[in-house]
């Protein structure tokens, strides 16, 4: 009777192999690539988010500026005239509101993917918001490292050579390649799950090979 030391082990190149796998199109599933043929279950509606708690510190600074402006307006001991006081109050209030909105709007981002569209909501009140119909999406890719330095800062960014992005923290993200040639990048936790959710809902385009 022959001995079979590897009985039950998956043969190289099969679905059970952990090395040398493919993405379902015959191409190696290299680092940073989400396999097209991944068997992970796609939920009916996918939800994801990302948060940057450091932004709360900046929000505190904005709140302090706003409080200072209110304090100056209510109880001021300035004796140098009304015009300087008004300028100081307006400056503090404007700076406070600007910093508060700029930080609270991008301290958090929520992403929702259903069968029709991908929706991005910024901040805990959901503004600004963007809705992207999936029939305008050509491809979805996983970005292992998105940083504010790549986009010139935090928040809702646009660069002519890169496209548009919502950047709330440094790390993984989802990149949508749109039919008009533009891209839309979102920093979101479990970006690989987001890629699978979008790819699983994309409809084949005219002129594309079957199964592409």
Write a concise keyword list for the protein shown above.
alpha+beta, 5-stranded mixed sheet, single chain, 4 helices, about 210 residues, 4-stranded antiparallel sheet
Secondary-structure-derived class: alpha+beta
Q: Can you list the strand order of the major beta sheet?
A: 5-8-9-7-6
| Biggest sheet descriptor | 5 strands, mixed
Low-confidence stretches: 1-32, 35-39
Explain what this protein looks like in three dimensions.
Helix 1 (55-74) packs antiparallel against helix 2 (82-104). It is elongated and about 70 Å long. The chain has helices at residues 55-74, 82-104, 148-151, 191-199; strands at 46-51, 108-113, 117-122, 129-133, 137-146, 155-159, 163-167, 171-178, 183-187. Mean pLDDT is 76; it is low at 1-32 and 35-39. It has 212 residues and is α+β, with helices and mostly antiparallel strands. The strands form two sheets. The chain has a five-stranded mixed sheet. A four-stranded antiparallel sheet has the order 1-2-3-4, with helices on one face. It is built from four helices and nine strands. The longest helix has 23 residues, at 82-104. Helices cover 26% and strands 26% of the residues. A hairpin with a 3-residue loop joins strand 6 and strand 7 (163-167).
